[in-house]
Amino acid sequence: MSLTKERIEILQKKIFLILNNQDNWNVKKIKFLSNGVVNAVFILEEESRGILIARTPWRLDESVGNLHSNEDVASLYKEATIAKHCFNHGLKVPRVIHLHLSEEINFLVSEYIHGDESTISAADIGHLVSSIHKIPLEGLSIIDQDNRSFYEIVSSRIVERVSAVNKLLSTNLIVPSIKEIEDTLGMTKTDHCLIHLDIRTPNIIRYKGEIKAVIDWDNAFIGDPLMELMRILETRDIDILEFQKGYKNDTILISASQPNSIIYRLDTALMLAILFISYIKDNDKVQFYLQRAYYLSNTLKRSL
Q1: Mean pLDDT over residues 240-251, rounded?
Q2: What's the whole-number mean pLDDT along residues 271-299?
Q3: Closest C-alpha among 44, 219, 244 to residue 129
Q4: Which of 44, 121, 181, 291 gets the highest tally of CB atoms within 10 A of its CB?
Q5: Is the pLDDT of residue 256 over 80?
Q6: What dotted CATH number matches 122-303?
Q7: 125 vs 64, 139, 256, CA distance in Å?
Q8: Is the pLDDT of residue 229 over 90?
Q9: What is the pLDDT of residue 1?
Q10: Residue ranges of the chain that CATH labels 3.30.200.20
Q11: CA-CA distances (angstroms) from residue 1 to 4, 60, 280?
């Protein structure tokens, strides 16, 4: 399913009318800005609040009568909750202005932070991630984590993703059971923290080479910081050696057990394979991450 011009116009009109008619705002202008796999992003100008950003899930769920799925609602609530918590603790994030949830449409309005396409150093990204990992957890609850352990979530997700890849590509990828993976992860005791799990330059607002804010907390959890580092390694978007200069915590990598590192990288490889199969059609990357998944799953089985 692709985002059509007609769908953009419908979403734009709904946001405009709800803010002005239901919330008594005075939105002067609203314009489509961009979209990702989940959200469409609009820039708007409100009389007293200035320039703001609104994001709304754009895909429709046919199984629930072409309404937004519960996952989409949870995603916006999660973004708002984490952004508010991080803002209150001094992290560079856009300030949350308004969260609207209804059967008609769901959207989140946040502060607009001006950015450009300038390059930022991997060391600066490392410092940003270190700051995220140091955010106090008191008072923070993540909606899709509930009372499940982080290790249970990761192990279940890996098995589910293997099933999805095998179905989509008619492959025969095999991994250990959920219990085996969970027990292996649990053998290493690490202090859990807030992890973003989608650290890429598109999710970092930058201006003239400086980081202004980090956005998109959809993948975030309270969990093992090693997973953040392994995801960065596996996605290959950031120079990990330069990153470490800013992150300044070599003990996480040095003390990391090999099975745990492999498990976290496998989760990433599977996620990217599905992304490039189902959402961003790129067969070369599908094949690359499929081979990575085979290699990592075989390495994991030998290490257990």
Answers
A1: 90
A2: 95
A3: 244
A4: 181
A5: no
A6: 3.90.1200.10
A7: 40, 26, 21
A8: yes
A9: 63
A10: 5-111
A11: 9, 9, 11
Two structure tokens written together for 193: 């923290």
HEC per residue, the chain: CCCCHHHHHHHHHHHHHHHHHHCCCCEEEEEEEEECCCEEEEEEEECCCEEEEEEEECCCEHHHCCECCHHHHHHHHHHHHHHHHHHHCCCCCCCEEEEECCCCCCEEEEECCCCCCCCCCHHHHHHHHHHHHCCCCCCCCCCCCCCCCHHHHHHHHHHHHHHHHHHHHCCCCCCCCHHHHHHHHHCCCCCCEEECCCCCHHHEEEECCEEEEECCCCCCEEECHHHHHHHHHHHCCCCHHHHHHHHCCCHHHHHCCHHHHHHHHHHHHHHHHHHHHHCCCCHHHHHHHHHHHHHHHHHHHHHC
- Whole-structure pTM over 0.85, yes or no? yes
